[in-house]
Design a protein that fits this description.
By secondary structure, the protein is mostly helical. It has 21 helices and no strands. The longest helix is centred in the last third of the chain and has 27 residues.
Length: about 425
């Protein structure tokens, strides 16, 4: 066994644990760790810095920049409210609409996090106006965002693609989207019945007077169309095109530049790129190969996908999917697929889904946003807060169990 490879994995685990227990951005901890580890193994500073992926940073920042424009000028929020109004007041369709809002907002570029925040914020007033449990609505909306987050132009897809392509893996995108769509629809239905929503006596939603889209908001939404067309049909870089559209919108005063920069999640960008620097060092000394060998040693063709999914889900309970779980596990897919004799498509799809659904835990972003949204309700007592914490963790665990069980049945090895 390569001792340096083992040390690198120990450093990797330590970084995740320190970030979790000290409540510090794991990207910052990773930069500290790779600086020390680099000196320990005699690696030059220039090679350590070379682990910072400038192309990934530009792609993530570009998409975040454009999405921040849309968030700051209210385009996405107003679009989602108008979408809800399409029901004509029929409360029974509210869960379907909030699922579609979560999926749609995530898919057009922002990815999961902005969509999570919007549906969580919408769930409380929507619950009061329809009679449905607001937590159920928030969960269904967030699950919808898990379907949309794997469209080709989201930060999540950009990251996974950047990790998969160096291994020669390229055919996973369509299977992942299909698996995500089916899984999220089925589990949304499960959540609907878990909360006994079929027994709720719904009330007709009151019509809300909404303002018309301003010219700047219309241009912002058209900007997303430009990005999608440019990337899908002309193979342009999603980061650069998003930057170009976002800068154009800033120039025409569609949003305030200072507000836009404040809206960008710089901590997430640092988390992904900082952890990536550490992962590059771990890969160079054979740590990922050692990890993939260890996983492969306990896998069979029947259990490989399920074990990969369970590993990703458990990791995601304690760390970020996009910042830690996928950068750690996606690089192992090529080796595991070759050694165990399973499809790389299934391995990538299952880890993408379990890591996402584990995020419904109150210790993660999805569950945390639901907690925060409900905390704005004057009737939200400490007792209700404690109950909701346990409830969200239970839902997260249930979702993880269902997905892993489906993997054991071979349902993620079909495509």
């Amino acid at each position: 066994m390569n001792s340096l490879a083992l040390v690198s994995l120990i450093v990797l685990v330590a970084v995740i644990l320190i970030g979790f227990f000290r409540k510090v951005n794991v990207g910052l901890v990773a930069i500290l760790a790779v600086t020390i580890f680099g000196m320990f193994i005699g690696q030059s500073d220039s090679k350590t810095i070379g682990g910072f992926s400038a192309s990934l940073f530009i792609m993530l920042l570009g998409v975040s920049f454009l999405c921040s424009v849309a968030i700051s000028n209210g385009s996405l929020e107003l679009m989602s409210k108008k979408f809800l109004k399409l029901s004509g007041g029929h409360a029974i369709v509210a869960p379907i609409l909030i699922y579609l809002i979560g999926a749609g907002i995530a898919a057009i570029g922002p990815g999961c996090v902005p969509a999570l925040g919007i549906v969580a914020a919408l769930s409380l007033p929507l619950g009061k106006s329809t009679g449905y449990n607001s937590v159920m609505l928030a969960l269904v909306g967030e699950i919808g965002s898990f379907a949309g987050r794997f469209s080709p132009i989201t930060p999540e897809s950009v990251l996974i693609r950047s990790l998969a392509e160096p291994q020669g893996i390229s055919g996973y995108q369509l299977p992942l989207i299909i698996y995500a769509l089916i899984t999220t629809i089925v589990l949304s239905i499960v959540v609907f019945f878990v909360f006994k929503s079929h027994k709720v006596q719904t009330t007709r939603m009151e019509a809300e007077e909404l303002p018309k889209f301003s010219l700047h908001q219309i241009l912002t939404l058209l900007g997303f169309v430009v990005v999608i067309v440019a990337c899908a049909f002309f193979k342009r870089n999603v980061g650069l095109i998003s930057f170009a559209v976002g800068i154009f919108l800033i120039l025409i005063k569609a949003a305030d530049e200072k507000v836009v920069f404040k809206t960008i999640s710089w901590s997430t960008l640092l988390m992904v790129t900082g952890f990536g620097m550490l992962m590059e060092a771990v890969i160079n000394v054979g740590g990922v190969e050692l990890l993939s060998n260890a996983l492969a040693s306990i896998m069979t063709p029947r259990t490989a996908v399920a074990i990969q999914g369970l590993t990703a889900g458990l990791m995601s309970w304690f760390s970020s999917a996009i910042g830690v779980v996928w950068p750690t596990l996606v690089p192992t897919v090529g080796d595991i697929a070759a050694k165990v004799g399973v499809s790389a498509n299934g391995l990538i799809s299952i880890m993408a889904l379990t890591a996402a659904f584990a995020g419904l835990s109150p210790a993660s972003t999805g569950g945390g946003l639901i907690m925060a949204a409900n905390a704005t309700d004057p009737e939200f007592t400490k007792e209700k807060e404690n109950k909701l914490f346990v409830q969200l963790f239970g839902v997260s665990a249930l979702m993880l169990v269902i997905i892993v069980a489906a993997a054991l049945l071979g349902l993620y090895s079909i495509l």
